[in-house]
Write a structure and sequence with these properties.
alpha/beta, 10-stranded mixed sheet, 6-stranded mixed sheet, 29% helix, globular, binds flavin-adenine dinucleotide
Length: 413
């Protein structure tokens, strides 16, 4: 590869994986972030890495549940009233994405992006000494009411069509898999053959260190603006001006702040999620566990047991409402009766969410050399390695068999 300098804007898991793929192809890479690497959404997530993730957030009939969720301050969905008018166009698109006609295209695109993720992470981690940050895992979907664990429900039928290894278990078989789950949970559907990160932030940091070892540069600075110049890009930062031949936008939920001044309009929302970490939980679970009724994921991490979830729409700058994290105390105790809940820490992070649950990956129209790699919604940890590979392939002008249309940054115009 001739000496081409690529600036990757954002050192979250997407930017870090993109940097690794670019370095493998021989590009010269600089990562820039105003914060430490992997300290945004990529730090506090639930750690689920599923090659089988193919069910979008918006599904047919979901709208029927929305009013009930909105009226419950402890429910899984919250829209700050002052923000509601700005949310409406996004919500309209979100509900449209859940139309049955749109599902096959979205599920197929999610499936294609996620499928190689565990193998790619294992390859990246090989030889770093941090291989243990990735553990084999089932995804245990636990149901209080056994009748709700219905393999004929649409989402499970879609997974079956994609060949996802699923199995329904009930009664004591659930406690055989996860002894700490309450016997009040009558059944579960297991998704096999996936992985979980036992510290997503540390995983990102280990891959960042690998990228540095491969020759990447890192600049800790705030990016203030971008402009095309002399066949490349000029980036204004709090630490001076940088020039690059190519620019990858991987700034997660903040990406549109830098793209709007260039004239781009894309419906990206900060879908804020929370976690509650039980720092001395007194129990350990072996898998990623989705409490389907409580709508949160629980997983044992290096530093404790983490319960993560909820969707809050309040914009990028509103202060966090940690009451949305502490609701997990009651919910987690219901799931794991022996859980010790006295020592907890809270966290909030912004998922970069498009209404159709897919990211934007590709060259931005009218601005050659500017590539999108953002908008990974609930699935960014899983989708990051393949996103990086695709972006590096595009910058190298390599042909691909993958249909990139569903991820096109222009699909909303
Ligand atoms: C509660 C919760 C649970 C989740 N669970 C899972 C899960 O189990 N599995 C899964 O696959 N996904 C999960 N996700 C989603 C996943 O965490 C995100 O999709 C992913 O982390 C997005 O990565 P990113 O690199 O795009 O963004 P980020 O990690 O947010 O990184 C973006 C970076 O850009 C930097 N930046 C932004 N603007 C600027 C600027 N102007 N100048 C300099 N730097 C800038 C930020 O500082 C930040 O470091 C979860 C998310 C949440 C909130």
């Amino acid at each position: 590869m001739p000496d081409i300098k690529v600036l990757v804007l954002g050192a979250g898991i997407v930017g870090i994986c993109t940097a690794l793929s670019l370095l493998e192809k021989g590009f010269s890479v600089e990562l820039i972030d105003r914060n430490d690497p992997a300290s945004g959404a990529s730090h506090g997530n639930a750690g689920v890495i599923s090659p089988w993730s193919c069910i979008p957030q918006s599904m047919p009939g979901l709208w029927k549940q929305v009013p009930k969720w909105l009226l419950d301050p402890k429910g899984p969905l919250n829209v700050r009233w002052s923000y509601a008018p700005r949310m409406l166009p996004w919500l309209r698109r979100f509900l449209k994405a859940g139309h049955p006609d749109n599902l096959p295209r979205i599920s197929e695109a999610m499936n294609a992006l996620n499928r190689p993720n565990v193998d790619l992470y294992r390859d990246y981690l090989k030889g770093t000494g941090h291989e243990n940050l990735l553990q084999d895992s089932y995804y245990v979907h636990a149901f209080r009411n056994g009748a709700d664990a219905d393999l004929d429900a649409l989402a499970w039928r879609i997974r079956s069509d994609f060949g996802v290894p699923i199995e329904r278990i009930e009664g004591g078989a659930l406690q055989d898999v996860e002894p700490e789950i309450s016997s009040e949970y009558q059944a579960a559907i297991l998704i096999r053959d996936q992985a979980r990160a036992t510290d997503p932030g540390a995983l990102g940091k280990a891959l960042f260190d690998k990228a540095m070892g491969m020759g990447a540069q890192f600049r800790k600075a705030e990016v203030l603006g971008l402009r095309p110049s002399e066949g490349g890009w000029t980036i204004e930062t709090s630490q001076g001006v940088i020039k690059a031949d190519k620019l990858v936008m991987a700034a997660g939920a903040w990406s549109m702040r830098l793209l709007e001044p260039l004239g781009f309009k894309m419906p990206l929302e900060a879908e804020r999620g929370y976690h509650l970490m039980f720092n001395a939980p007194g129990i350990e679970v072996k898998n990623s566990i989705m409490d389907v009724d409580g709508k949160f994921v629980a997983s044992s991490m290096i530093d404790g047991l983490r319960c993560a979830g909820t969707a809050e729409f309040a914009g990028l700058d509103a202060p966090a409402n940690y009451a949305r994290a502490t609701v997990f105390r009651t919910l987690a105790k219901r799931l794991f009766p022996r859980l010790e809940t006295s020592q907890v820490t809270t966290w909030m992070g912004a998922r970069p969410s498009f209404p159709d649950s897919l990211p934007a990956i590709g060259e931005m129209s009218g601005h050659p050399g500017l590539f999108a790699a953002f908008g990974h919604c609930h699935y960014g940890l899983g989708m990051a390695p393949n996103t990086g590979r695709i972006v590096a392939g595009l910058i190298s002008r390599e042909p691909t068999n993958l249909d990139l249309g569903p991820y096109s940054p222009a699909r909303f115009s």
